[in-house]
Amino acid sequence: MAVYTEIPFADAAALLERLNLGTLTDLRGIQGGIENTNYFVTSEKDGATHEHVLTVFERLGFDQLPYYLHLMKHLAGHGIPVPAPAADASGEVMHRLLGKPAAVVDKLRGHSELVPTVRHNEAVGAMLARLHLAGRDFAMSQPNLRGLAWWNDTVPVVMPHLEDSQRQLLQSELAHQNHIASTPAYAALPRGPVHADLFRDNVMFEDGTLTGFFDFYFAGNDTWLFDLAVCLNDWAVSHGDPAIDGEHQPELAQAMLTAYQRVRPLSAAERSLLPAMLRAAGLRFWLSRLWDWHLPRDAAMLQPHDPTHFERVLRARATEARNLAITLLEEPALAA
Ligand SMILES: Nc1ncnc2c1ncn2[C@@H]1O[C@H](COP(=O)(O)OP(=O)(O)O)[C@@H](O)[C@H]1O
Ligand SMILES: N[C@@H](CCOP(=O)(O)O)C(=O)O
């Protein structure tokens, strides 16, 4: 479940009224997600029915949210299918409900594809590249708050909860990522606003067609390659069966990479650092899952994901990443 804050009907109705979205007719808590309180809201305006998503932010504060909400607005304005946030009469897109920050965004059609095919991965790869290009003239900047600085702060916090082999993996990977971040090749990576959490459950499809990317609340300015690596580690690995969980799925990875590069070919620096970024993306989500698992801020408020899946992903990427990336990038279709 993901309704941490119960929103009274009257409060939601008053907010919709203020946003000129009509009269609230239905308010349904959404069972899904782990970070925020989400409701589907239905309203009537000028004889038509409208659907939106009302989010109350449980972790993020009033300082960080403008970046995410304005990025969504910017991308939607540039033709990327992203839920646009509703503004009040003064143009403000961040609102307040029960003392917490809140937003109302367009409801996307369709559902998530948890077992994607090559077609789904092609659609996501192409749209991700379009998103990166569309973000180039976004005026605001905010670091990826789950980036290297957070990894360095958080590794010592989770360390006491781990077994020796896990400690070793975490420490050596952090050292590797600190080294990579200091190299000229890393400095040469193109960057801009990135989603940074574009997992299968943050993309909608309807009848096989991509209808949108959502949940931008881990977005930030970072390398485009890191964003692509986050996607590859979720959309192109095995899930579920413990015997193969976390294994690379070459056909799915190839589909995403090829489609991405048709829109924006990777630079030489990006091609050389794909293995390192696949590891970085594995580390990022293993670490956040460990942190949620072992150090819940409030047990009643969090539904942590299983960290072991990303431990497997990281171990696999750390041992195979170089060969894997070389194979992927040597495909004739991708040769520069
Ligand atoms: N804009 C949207 N359009 C349609 N459904 C949405 C939208 N935003 C959220 N949802 C639904 O709410 C669920 C939880 O949202 P999510 O952003 O993943 O929550 P959290 O940030 O708490 O992890 C999603 O799985 C999806 O079903
Ligand atoms: N995608 C992350 C967790 C973030 O949760 P979300 O529901 O907001 O996408 C993970 O799988 O660890």
TrEMBL record:
Under the heading Pfam families, the entry gives:
APH
Q: Does the keyword Amino-acid biosynthesis apply?
A: yes
Q: Which PANTHER family match?
A: AMINOGLYCOSIDE PHOSPHOTRANSFERASE DOMAIN-CONTAINING PROTEIN, AMINOGLYCOSIDE PHOSPHOTRANSFERASE DOMAIN-CONTAINING PROTEIN-RELATED
The gene is thrB
Q: What is this protein called?
A: Homoserine kinase
The Aminoglycoside phosphotransferase domain extends over 27-265
Annotated InterPro entries:
Aminoglycoside_PTrfase, Homoserine_kinase_II, Kinase-like_dom_sf, Pseudomonas-type_ThrB
GO molecular function terms here?
A: ATP binding; homoserine kinase activity
The organism of origin for this protein = Hydrogenophaga crassostreae
Write down the EC number: 2.7.1.39
Catalyses: L-homoserine + ATP = O-phospho-L-homoserine + ADP + H(+)
The similarity annotation says:
Belongs to the pseudomonas-type ThrB family.
Q: Which UniProt keywords apply?
A: Amino-acid biosynthesis, ATP-binding, Kinase, Nucleotide-binding, Threonine biosynthesis, Transferase
Q: In which pathway does it act?
A: Amino-acid biosynthesis; L-threonine biosynthesis; L-threonine from L-aspartate: step 4/5
Q: Per the record's keyword annotation, is Amino-acid biosynthesis included, yes or no? A: yes
Gene Ontology biological process terms from the UniProt entry: threonine biosynthetic process
